[in-house]
Every structure is written in structure tokens, then in C-alpha cells.
Amino acid sequence: MHKRALVLSALLAATAGSDLLAKEVQYPSKPITLIVPYPPGGPNDVIARTLSAELSKELKVPVVIENKAGAAGNIGTAAAARAPSDGYTIALPGSALAINTVIFDNLPYRLSDFRAIGLVAQGPVVAVAHPSAGIRSIAELAQAAKARPEAFPFPSGGKGTSPHLGGVLFNQQAQVKMTHVPYKGTGEFVPDLLAGRVPVAFVSPLIARQHVDSGALVALATTGEKRLRGWERVPTVAESGYPGFKVQPWYALVAPAATPDGVVHTLHEALQKALQSPRVQEKLVNLGLDAVPGTIRQADAAILGEAAQWKGIDWSE
Fold first, then answer.
1. 52 secondary structure, DSSP code
2. Helix, strand, coil % (nearest 5) of the chain?
3. Which of helix, strand or coil describes residue 186?
4. Among candidate residues 72, 53, 71, 74, the one with its CA nearest the CA of residue 62
5. E strands of 228-284, at which residues?
6. CA dist 256 to 77, 182, 243, Å?
7. Nearest to residue 257, comparing CAs of 47, 148, 117, 105?
8. Do residues 241 and 96 make contact, with C-beta atoms less than 8 angstroms apart?
9. Strand pairing partners for 201?
């Protein structure tokens, strides 16, 4: 009887272990929600919708976009932080995930509330002007803004977004005082920009391209370390008289901090395969971005490094 009991116990233990393994292998077994903390139409949203189709193929379940806009991305990001840590709710924030921890008091999340799945893409933004402003270069913008700062408000999708960072950094390096005008999201201020109600902005190449090509906007400079692919005739802000100027936002997939290692690994591997898709790479190039495949550790380093970069900036307005 004793030997039979031991055998039975061993069989039960093996069965339990198999059940646990089966449960882990089953992930994912239902749709995954991908939170985009900005309105439809902006870079985060376009990237998420492009990526979700490939992730769905890799993971064999639907990846459903949920836009939760507002408060410079903080509403959607906080919702992702509070989500169950089971891998069925993830988020695609941009650099603002890290930057907002520097510029906001009483933020409804901390960086430690998340763990990285992986970087997705990165690229600069474009400084543009409405033709009625009579501005054709960054040097001309600096000169005009020094003479009449009240005439050059700049819009953004909220504090911590790339259009905001571009304007703040330019204000400090050019020693001008253009006024920041926050909107609910990047797509929200484009009509005012195209109508000339706001004369200048730092915007995604996704938004700028068609309007620059049509003559509705004038490209002044790009904000990366080198000239943007497809925009080679447009100088960088750094080479226009402001060495070291860099606003080069990234986009990343993240999950709640307590999400199990095995789940994060599954999502990471699916992301790496999705980034190899010609469709995804073509879309990113059209957005003025480069795919950023790499390790989870590299994504963690990028997020922490972004927060460190902006700690010395004066955010008072």
C-alpha cells in the first residue's frame, strides 16, 4: 500500500505540473487589449494599428486597440498600470511614459508600475510653420520669436509629448519665450495649424509630410541627430545653429509590472517577428521612423535613459 501511495502521489504531482504547464502554454487564449493613451490618428495610434495586425498573426488571437486619451497620455497609461497582470492588457506609450515622471507632480503611475516588452520604433519630429508666418528656417523662427514672442504660440498633444518637448527645448536653446498651447492630442491641433491659428509646431513626419508636399506647411528642420530619411533637403535643428539639440521619440510595448516572465517573453518574441514584417517596416518608414528590434533589457535602458535626459530642463511655463 505504501508503494502504491507513493506512485499515486507521484502521478498526481506530475499531473498537476502538466496542468500548470498547459495553462502557461495556453497563453494567449483570448483577445489582447492594446491601450493607446492618445486619440485616433496620431503616431501612437497608427503604429499600434499597424503592429496589432502582425501581433494577431503571431499570437493567434485578436489584438484589439483601445484609445484612452487625455491628460498628456496619463489617463490611458494609468489605466494600463492598473490592469490585471495577466498579459491580456498591454500598452503602447511613447517617450512620454518616462518624461511625464519628470514633469508632472502626483502622476497616477510610476515607471516601476510597468515592465518593458520591447521597443517598437523611434524617429525625430519636424519643425513646421504656416506659410502666413513668413518663416522659412529655424534661424528665422528664432529671430522672429525674439522680436514678437506673443505671435508664436506652439501647440502640442499635451505636456511631455514630442511637440511639447520640441518647443520647450527650442525655447531654452534659442532663448525665446514661445507660449505652449496644449491640446487633447496631436491630431486635435492640426486643423488650427493648417488654418494658421497657431503659426509653428513640432509634429510627426506622419502629419507633416502631406501638408509640406502640398505647400500648406513649410518644413524648417528635423529634430534628430542626423537628417531624416526621405527629408534629406531639410536640415536638423542641431546643424541649424543649435548643437546637441535632439528630440527623437520612441514607442514601446509595456505590460503591468507583475506580468509573468513567460507571458512577457511570448509577447516579446511576437513583437520581434512583427517588426521584421515588410508591411510594418514600410509603414514605419512612411511615418519617418525606424523599427527598433532588440532585447527587453535594451528597452528598459531606453525608458530609464529618457527620464534622465529631461531632468535638467526648466518645465515652468
1. H
2. 50, 15, 35
3. helix
4. 53
5. 250-256
6. 10, 28, 38
7. 117
8. no
9. 128
* Local structure of 198: helix, strand or coil: coil
How far is the C-alpha of 169 from the C-alpha of 176, rounded, in Å?
Answer: 10
Q: Show Cβ contacts of residue 116 under 8 Å, excluding neighbours closer than 6 positions.
A: 252, 253, 254, 296, 299, 300, 303
pTM: 0.77
Residue range 261-283: mean pLDDT, rounded? 96
The DSSP bridge partners found for residue 244 are none
Q: What pLDDT, on a 0 to 100 scale, did the predictor assign at position 22?
A: 38
Q: Give the distance from CA 94 to its chain's centroid.
A: 2
Exposed, middle or buried by CB within 10 Å (0-12, 13-18, 19+), for 154? buried
User: What pLDDT score does 14 carry?
Assistant: 46
- Dihedral sign computed on CA atoms, order 230, 303, 295, 44: negative
| DSSP code string of 65-86 | EEE---GGGHHHHHHHHHS-SS
Cell 518644413, residue located: 219
- What confidence score (pLDDT) does residue 184 get? 78
Cis bond leading into 155, ω under 30°? Answer: no
Q: How far is the C-alpha of 112 from the C-alpha of 304, rounded, in Å? A: 10
Report the chain's C-alpha Rg in angstroms. 23
Sheet holding 200-203, edge to edge: 200-203, 126-129, 218-222
Q: How many residues does the chain have?
A: 317
3-state SS class at 128: strand
Q: Calculate the dihedral angle through the C-alpha atoms of 103, 227, 305, 176, rounding to the nearest 10 degrees.
A: -30
